[in-house]
Amino acid sequence: MIRILSRYAILFSLTLLSLCALSFSLIYLFPAEPVTTLTGITPQNLMQHEALMNQYHLNNSIIVQFADYLSELFAGNWGVSLISGQPLSEEIMLALPATIELSACAMFIVIVVGIPLGCYSGLRAYSTTDFTINSISVTAYSVPVFWLAVLFILTFSLQFGWLPLSGRINLLFDIPPKTGFLMIDILLADNVDRAAAFSDALLHLILPVLSIACISTASMIRITRRSIIDVLNKPFIIAARSKGLSSKQIFFRHVLRNALLPILPLMAMQITTLITNAMIVETLFSWPGIGNWLIQAIYQRDYSALRMGMLAVSTLVVMITIAIDLFNRLIDPSREKYESVTI
Amino acid sequence: MSRFSLYDDEAHPSPWQHTWRAFKSSHIALVGLAVLLLFVFFAFFAPLVAPYNPTYQNTEALLIPPSWAPNGSIAHLFGTDALGRDLFSRIMYGCRVTFGTSLLVVIIAMLVGVTIGTIAGMLSGVRSSVVNHLLDALMAIPTLLIAIIIVGILGSGLVNSMWAITLALIPQFVHHTRSFVRGEMKKDYIQSSTLDGASNLQLFYYSILPNMIEMLVVQGTLALSIAVIDISALGFLNLGAQAPLPELGAILATGLDAGYLAPWNIAIPGVSIFLMVLSITIVGDGLRSALRKRVNR
Amino acid sequence: MPLLDIKNLTLEIDTGTQVIKALDKINLTVNSGEIRALVGESGSGKSLIVQAISGATPPNWSITADRMSWNGNNLLSMSEQKRRQILRKDIGVVFQHAIASLDPSVTLGEQLEESLPDQLIEGSWFWQRAQSRRKVVINTVHKVGIKDHEQYLRAYPHQIPTDIGQKLMLAMALISQPKMLIADDPTRGMETTTKVQVLKLLSRLNQTRSLGILFVSHDLLAIASMSHSMTVLYCGQTVESGKMKHIRKRPLHPYTKALMDSAPSFSKDLPPKSQLPTLAGTIPTLQHLPIGCRLGPRCPRAQRACVNVPAVRKIHDHSYSCHFPLHRDKV
């Protein structure tokens, strides 16, 4: 157990190190002065340029520079944005929880709706119900996420006017951002009508989450269905039936465990796609998340923001992936059946 | 003498014929294949078939509704956009760009990924497990992020977005190829070929590759659907194809401006992307179940 | 009254292109306290019978029989619920590949405890029942010959060696104290010492508890020593059936004789370097079944009449289906 944990800790640090190295190399790869990309300050004259170079050790060898870079990162000194001049750490710390909130809600729906529907569909494989569910999920899987979001906006916001169009909450509510997670901040704020604020935030959450969740749920249904069909054909299910166990017992005790364990590695890929879709949808709904922030940054060629943002998002994603992998390793008794899982 | 054969000749179809027969038995897969072939046709022959030049702006024909609406005309089958460009020709060229670039991206990613994966799988060493974990962890970086970085370094444009998506698809191919090759190397038929004196290259070409083709086809269709969605997403965000290059996502983005007045500018490009991905997914599903039926017979 | 009574069971498999008669009018009877051996080459359909009895059949199989009853109750017309009850309490099944028949994600101890029906545990409180369950499991595991149960009960199926797996499958089948055991080639691939242990255990169970056993195998040496009666199966047809000593002394069907001859018995003084007696040819595949008596193409005594399926004839409990049995001269 300790060995597994230490292995994963080493893996995590190695991956983090390579991500930092990548972000460090961006300083030289971006088509701007290395000083600018690193600090976010455009030097006005030669003296300032020299001063900045010395301050950030950009004249020394690469190793020293990298070591310095790492120490700055851990100190929280992430530089400032080229365009807005605000410290990057603040901006990222505000934007990241918004995206996490969006993705977490979508993931919740995916798991709560996708897995039961997939199981239901798999148990009645090749029947009419299964055919219907499968067709719907194939259709939902093929819809481009940005088109779906636009359609939702056009129908539900503009045509019917039921749901709000942009932002996280109505501008009339002034919630001080303590944690960045709006739901928690609402509960922590004490000068607002909490119920009204909560329901308003919820309404703002519905459309973006629905756009993301539709596609990922469809994918989850397909994966679960395939996994259940594969397990139902295995010899030990036939043996269990010969033992005289009832269908319900067989399902909950044997089928479910053996079907869900192989799809955990696939969940990591799902989360990646989910976060990509979340980032795209944020631009359409003006949701103040990290995706919107990064895309604005690339439109304005804000190189220092890009560098830091890339590091932040990839660290988040890698953390989640390694956590899922670790979880899988701990609860799965036999690790051999990892290699071949299909949709 | 009658012409019937006294002994019933046994028909032993080859594996590909088997797969094709199983594929044919599903009607939906055939319909998907037909739609996919239509897109392939557009990809190759759009310049010959399109009625108008996609960049030709006819200032007298702005925002004409499609031909099935009351004020539409048959001259512009799908109507025109805000700059007077015929939407039908734009969509055809757009399919050409989107589908063609996706195919190219998938082929390049497959070639590079399979090479790296095979080398990693055949010459496996002690450190291969660490490399495997590292690769899996890096595989998890979102496509959009990679695209943003590459656009930041190289600038926006269709070719740069192609590089981004190729980079994003390679780790998947590497992962699957590597695990497949490692699994096959343990099998007895590879060992017997090795004992016969086959070199690694011969092993790969004659023994492993024929068995790998099925897995590659399945992964390829998956990657193709991901590539289409990603390229159109990047075009939509203006990070990929730049105007006036007709690309389905970019067409959708320009259509958004006049969206409320002219909803066909949003609906039709979206439907084309949807149909493209749907046909790829259906054909991929059909192939997968055909291959499964062949193996489980 | 026989425990298991099967008469004229036909199993048809619909492969989509053709309908194959995998089992053609099988007759099988197992009485209480009797060990019946079901012998046949691989490919003759022995495992299909086991699957048909246990009811775990895929949807493209269709089973018809004149009579298929357990203790007088018709198995075919019974409800799903009742059939499951019977399987749980009265019949135990041991499958061929032990490791594949076990759930890979559950420990063996749990799987054993699962096979125990509730009626056999005493105690009315939760923890009492759990304790007595565990006790029964440990007892049964000891009885099959596994000494240190701790290690194996905590292990997962892929961590145990195959012969321990086989013994555990046997324990799983016996734990519900069934009246009949269906053993589908339980000693396949075992070393002789383990094989002897298992066979001794089975015959002891048969004597003490009058447990009926349907022993499906093609290991003639094992079967000859302990079974009371035998049914010979060739390519989905029963060719001969009767008491073991009668068949050994005087086999009536050419196939049975060939089977008996082919089992090497090193006590017979064969002349050195003489050819071992065999039956030419191989068992036909399911796609190319001969019409009539399926041994026709291979049988040394085959004549024109063999294109019709021979009727079942009986001589004092010894039934055979052949047009030209061995006690009559070849005409």
UniProtKB/TrEMBL annotation, chain B:
Gene3D superfamilies: MetI-like (1.10.3720.10). Belongs to the binding-protein-dependent transport system permease family. OppBC subfamily. InterPro entries: BP-dependent_transpt_permease, MetI-like, MetI-like_sf, OppC_N. Its main location: membrane. This is Peptide ABC transporter permease. Keywords: Cell inner membrane, Cell membrane, Membrane, Transmembrane, Transmembrane helix, Transport. Pfam families: BPD_transp_1, OppC_N. It is a multi-pass membrane protein. SUPFAM superfamilies: MetI-like. GO terms for cellular component: plasma membrane. It is found in: Cell inner membrane; Cell membrane. Residues 99-284 form the ABC transmembrane type-1 domain. CDD domains: TM_PBP2 (cd06261). One of its GO terms (biological process) is transmembrane transport. The chain crosses the membrane at residues 28-50, 97-122, 134-155, 216-237, 266-287.
